[in-house]
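I have a small job for you when you get a moment. Would you make up a two-line entry for one protein for me to read? No commentary is needed, just the two lines. Write everything out right here, beneath this request.
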Amino acid sequence: MIESKEQLAEAAGRIAALREEVGKVIVGQRTVVDQLLWCLVAGGHALLEGIPGLGKTMLVRTVADAVALQFSRIQFTPDLMPSDITGTTLIDFGAAGAASQRFQPGPIFGNLVLADEINRATPKTQSALLEAMQEGTVTAGGETHKLPRPFFVLATQNPIEQEGTYPLPEAQLDRFLLKIGVDYPTREDLKEIVRRTTTSAKPSASTIISGSELLELQAAARELLVSEDVLDNAVKLVMMTHPGEEDAPEEIKRYARFGAGPRALQALVSVAKVKALASARLHVSWGDIRDVALPVLRHRIVLSYEAQALGMDTDAMTMSIIREIEAKR
């Protein structure tokens, strides 16, 4: 609970220290690191999309080290079964031959679970994550098992290699708080990456906060204030992604099949609160909503086939909505 400016500054300092520690291992990618930390402090799951070799797996592992979280990695493949993720019920035979059942937890029972190349598994296996991501539980053998807290699923997928992949359904995409795009490093970052990875010295992240301290940060972020004006604009932003909305931009009306749902508004506000907390502010501004809008909405607007054929993307549509809202403020 934040009761003073000192506590607010301390919370912001913890987030800044996390960012700095991750930066000792991850070169550049500041926007990606910021958005991933927003997601963790907001208590949500993230989908990282980028071509192979950009350090997505290393980023997730580094964050787990910096926050002292139990790290678990699941490599998704077409032959992966749901029980390979959630766990299975085993039969034990005692010394007297009496049989008993026990549940053997799968790799989903971790604090920070990396679902690597999630779109390589079949929809049946992908769906094994839904209960865990939404409810924080796993049901197996008729029994429900609670997952440890905090609990995050950070999934990666390759946007260019589609052979042998299964696109994530919209219902599953909506469970991810943010979709984070991981782009190519800059020229200077590439040079620094080579310097760090072609020598015997291997940088590593030290533990900055514990899992319980992360839960305290999550609770602190939820206490931040959102004015009616800011909330109204956030609602307007989500509503204008709907092609049937009167105020929607022409691009949305023509090229969007479906707009964002209620989870998008929840994500906008919760992530904006974390951004405000990182800036040591007790209230959310429109600037916070605007700055988190792209990773919140890019996987929640469903484009038409025509838009996909023309190479259009949801980020450009979201920016056009933001410009219209700002023009009327």
Q: What stands out?
A: The chain has 15 helices and 13 strands. The longest strand covers residues 87-93. The chain has a mean pLDDT of 85. The two ends are 33 Å apart (CA to CA).
